[in-house]
Design the sequence.
């Protein structure tokens, strides 16, 4: 059974850092490029970052470039998103999925940036 379980979201102040995790199961993780995608309140899904199957190539949305780092541990079937210098605009539910999206969505993890 394919499953994506995101975790690590929290309520933080602007300028803080968070590390999100996504544990994947039910498919050959290392064969798949992975994405982080977010949805802010009242807005459409927004792509954040991609990483290829071996973890050697990464791609970022302009909003994430220079502040976020995507990485993966294929032995642990986990993809990470290190988020630094968070701003109010980063408030969203964060999801992982394959790149392109092919799997059922997980529950996501909520990130709230508030003073």
Sequence:
């Amino acid at each position: 059974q394919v499953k994506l379980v995101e975790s690590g979201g929290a309520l933080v102040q602007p300028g803080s850092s968070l590390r999100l995790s996504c544990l994947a199961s039910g498919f050959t993780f290392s064969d798949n490029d992975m994405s982080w995608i977010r949805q802010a309140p009242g807005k459409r899904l927004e792509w954040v970052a991609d990483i290829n199957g071996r973890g050697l190539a990464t791609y970022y949305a302009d909003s994430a470039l220079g502040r976020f780092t995507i990485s993966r541990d294929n032995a642990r079937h986990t993809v990470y998103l290190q988020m630094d210098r968070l701003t109010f605009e980063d408030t969203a539910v964060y999801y992982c999925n394959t790149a392109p999206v092919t799997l059922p969505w997980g529950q996501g993890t909520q990130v709230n940036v508030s003073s």
